[in-house]
Amino acid sequence: MTAQRRGISKNPESSRQASSWRGNVITLLLSEILTQPRVFTVECSEDYKKYKLFPGMHPFIEGKHCFFWPNIDCFLFECVFIPFCCVHASILDLHSGALSMGKQFVNIYRYFKNEIRDVFTEDFELYRDVCSRIQKAIAETFGLDTKQIYLTKPTFFSRINSTSAKNTHDEYWHPHIDKETYGSFDYTSLLYLSDYGLEFGGGRFVFMDPSSNRTVKPRAGRVSFFSSGSENLHHVEKVPWGTRYAITVSFTCDPNYAIDNPSLP
Ligand SMILES: O=C(O)CCC(=O)C(=O)O
Ligand SMILES: [Fe+2]
């Protein structure tokens, strides 16, 4: 695995072009939010009765569960290239440095030591900016104060392709509830980094509603966010071709689960 970094123009046109380079790297994209979120309200889940409640969870109690997919196709234009080259990596957690490689995890901070500063330069600042924009969008949409929701772990980049799963964690296609899977999540957000139909097939995100499923087609720059309880049971369709990149950024209302923004060790 070699450290590599490539620059990219901030011009949206050239960034579109850059998407074809993304064979084995991850690109983080952000610019301005251009459109209003599409908001859907789902039934309040009874499960919240069994959880300890915090102020930021009041939309749940009032039965205002929502999910959104603001179409922010030009969301951000700078990028992070992460050294995923030639490995079957599927997850990278910037906070802990954990990078999955087949059945194992390596710690990129330990692996690259000081060289990590050549891999990541302004990227952490960018990542913080992305997280804080998403936090603001969630707070505004759910009618919260941003101080009521805290970044929590894990937050991670994911890469999905058609290679077979190396362990059960790779089996993204199973229906699940994020609050049960990850424990601390109250709000889940997903920032997509590649385009459904162009860069990969399958891979749509499916909210499994009792009445009818709702499907989100990933597009580079599209963000989806939703409350993490059983009201938003979901799965991701299998990816038969191409490579799908996304970032999961999660928030909790419990200050005990709050984490700081990632920083280089
Ligand atoms: O990448 C996605 O669209 C969703 C992934 C997911 O559901 C998860 O990591 O819990
Ligand atoms: Fe999930």
Automatic annotation (TrEMBL):
Entries under InterPro entries matching the protein: OGFOD3, Oxoglu/Fe-dep_dioxygenase_dom, Pro_4_hyd_alph, Pro_4_hyd_alph_FE2OG_OXY
Pfam families: 2OG-FeII_Oxy_3 (PF13640)
Cofactor: L-ascorbate
GO CC aspect terms: membrane
Residue intervals of the Fe2OG dioxygenase domain: 153-254
Molecular function terms from GO: dioxygenase activity; iron ion binding; L-ascorbic acid binding; oxidoreductase activity, acting on paired donors, with incorporation or reduction of molecular oxygen
Domain of life, source organism: Eukaryota
Record Gene3D superfamilies: q2cbj1_9rhob like domain
Keywords: Dioxygenase, Iron, Metal-binding, Oxidoreductase
Name of this protein: Urotensin-2 receptor 2
Species the sequence originates in: Sinocyclocheilus anshuiensis
